[in-house]
Amino acid sequence: MKHKLKMLLRELVARAVYHTPLWRLCDLLAPKRMVILAGHCVEAASNDFLPPEMKIREETLASILSWLKERFDGVRVADGWRRLNEGGGKSLFALSMDDGYRDNVTHLLPLAERLGVPVTVYLESRPLDEARVNWTHKFFWLVERLGVDELAVRYADETHVESDNVQTHQVVAEGVDVIYRWKRALKYDFDPIERDRVLDALFAREGGEEAALCAELYMDDAGVAALRDAGWELGGHTVSHHVLSGLEEAAQREEVTRGRESLVERRGVGCESFAYPFGRSWDFNEASVQAVRDAGFECAVHTHAGVATRGSDPYRLSRWMIDDQAQLHLIAAEACGAFELFRKVGLDLSE
Ligand SMILES: [Zn+2]
């Protein structure tokens, strides 16, 4: 009941600020802020098999960006963080895209140039350096080819660990949102080395070719250069997209630092800000934050909703996740500071 009331209040507040000039009042009362949007792909043939929560259509994205641009200043994330601390001027919005997909070059670049909106892309370095993709993409690729039930059977047949075997069947038997649940189990509950071995084996058996899949999905060096030359911010997102909190401190440093070096030294990009892979608060820890700071990043973002203000922790900046179901009135309420005003009295309406 409490949750329902909160959802009702959230809708009322969001619709009020979106449909009326009330957004101006909130903007005036709330501290100067930056709302950072976070996505992955703009819908394109190259990312056809990725799940819907990783994609947004160009029209949807254009309508969100146009609304924000009419009212606030569009910035790159690291520039925005500096401007917040200088004070003065309008509140800010930033668009960030994670991982470094090819559609960011082929589809988002022309759209962003047309709208005059700067973009920040957080790049994994291994697709660029070794033409390799992280396990999630092999998983989605296999789900598309085999269906989730058949994949579960083959996964169980391939794995030699009895507990994994049981767990796989359990997750599949639950039935609801099965792909999401299974991905979650693969991410947190399964041994990552065994998981990668099994997915690699199944992927190869189905005729998967990793370099070809990488070339289809991810941008190449020419794409990185095109974005860099267009003035986009290119930030760090580790070498290979591990859950950082699942790694020892030294391995975390290796992921963060080597990922940055690859971008700065081989590709001449600034790499001023960083995005934690997967981005939930339990996906990174104090050691991750320290590694990011020591590697030379000025700030870092996660995927819990909120806004950055002058007093925010620079290594824990919030982002608003967007996909094609993104609701502009809710984004509007965050961007104009309405949700921030409620947070100040202890009520978080954003999540
Ligand atoms: Zn990512």
What would you say this structure looks like, in words?
- Helices cover 54% and strands 11% of the residues.
- It has two domains: 258 residues, Glycoside hydrolase/deacetylase (TIM Barrel, Alpha-Beta Barrel), CATH 3.20.20.370; 78 residues.
- Strands 1, 4, 5, 6, 7, 10 and 11 form a seven-stranded mixed sheet that branches.
- α4 links the parallel β4 and β5.
- α3 runs parallel beside α16, α9 packs antiparallel against α10 and α14 packs parallel to α15.
- It is built from 17 helices and eleven strands.
- The protein is of the alpha/beta class.
- The protein is globular and about 60 Å long.
- It starts with a helix and ends in a 7-residue tail after the last helix.
- The model has no long low-confidence stretch (mean pLDDT 93).
- The longest helix is centred in the last third of the chain and has 19 residues.
- The protein binds zinc ion.
Cα Rg: 21 Å
Name every ligand kind in the structure.
zinc ion
Question: What is the number of domains?
Answer: 2
Distance between the termini: 16 Å
Q: In CATH terms, what is the architecture of the largest domain?
A: Alpha-Beta Barrel
**How do the helices and strands follow one another from N- to C-terminus?**
HHEEEHEHEHEHHHHHHHHEHEHEEEHH
How would the global form be characterised?
globular
- As residue ranges, the low-confidence spans are none
Number of helices: 17
**Level-1 CATH class name of the largest domain:** Alpha Beta
The main sheet comes to: 7 strands, mixed
How many beta-strand runs? 11
Structural class: alpha/beta
Average pLDDT over all residues = 93
CATH evolutionary superfamily of the largest domain: Glycoside hydrolase/deacetylase
β content, as a range? Answer: 5-15%
CATH topology of the largest domain, anyone?
TIM Barrel
Helix content: 40-55%
